[in-house]
Amino acid sequence: MLRRRWLAAALAAVMLAVLAAGCGGGGNKDTVKVRIGEVTRSLFYAPQYVAIAKDMFKKEGLEVELTTTAGGDKTMTALLSGGIDVALVGSETSIYVYQQGSDDPIINFAQLTQTDGTFLVSREEIGDFDWNSLKGKVFLGQRKGGMPQMAGEFTLKKYGIDPQKDLTLIQNVEFANIPAAFASGTGEYVQLFEPQASIMEKEGKGHVIASFGTESGKLPYTVFMAKESYIDKNKDTVQKFTNAVFAAQKWVQDHSAEEIADVVLPFFPDAERDIVVKVIDRYKQQGSYATDPIVDEAEWNNLQDVMESAGELKTRAEHGKLVNNTFAEKVLK
Q1: Which residue from 125, 181, 197, 243 lies 20 to 30 Å from 321 (Cα-Cα)?
Q2: Owning domain of residue 157
Q3: Are residues 187 and 54 in the same domain?
């Protein structure tokens, strides 16, 4: 009898220990893994790195695996093939997939950046810059069909400049090689992302004279997106993901460029802190970081205007077809 009672007590103690292990500590059993593919590693995406570094995803019960997929086409291929669960890429890529008649459309659910992230850099220092001074010059632009190039052309047309006729437009240089091409003497002007623009300034090889982000207006420039089938099957995960994104957005809004830089620097081991601070401050000042995850309909339409102007839009996509704001709206409540 005593032996049976001892065994029962021992079994009860073991069960309590198992239950405690399941409910306490890291809660690994309940953690959901989400594979993110980012189109490039960029300070433009600072809120994403803040969310990772400050355990905002982890607090939502998510374990994120971040991969740099290097290019919009590769990012979308990885998403469509199931190599990643969520893509951080320009919304235009979801529209390109839509134009091809996909049975499982790509849905934008949480916006991260709301302007173009490139700057106009001149080889020579210019005092009072006038966009018309680009006429007749050699302009080293971004890849044709990509959002940076389309935003660049949209801006030029806004100032009455025909990109194909009024200047010599170079757009066949690979994205990663554009800064080196300009530094080696190609072009009189170049369209660059940060931190390359600020590095050019620091090295005395170029001068930032205008912002394409400011000129082209607000756009759903970089957005977290997933296949409709993934969202339908993982609504709770997508909601938790969006919660973490919004927490990071609020943190970025409330903290200085210096504080943000110190959090994201581990993601940029070769970067100089003063450059990182300068870049983040520049993006904050021009409102590039979205303040909430909502993909606004007016911005969505502006994006399609930019694509249409560049001749890259076959069919306009209704906001409701490729955007799901329910997760963003819930976190705002």
Answers
A1: 243
A2: 118-216
A3: no
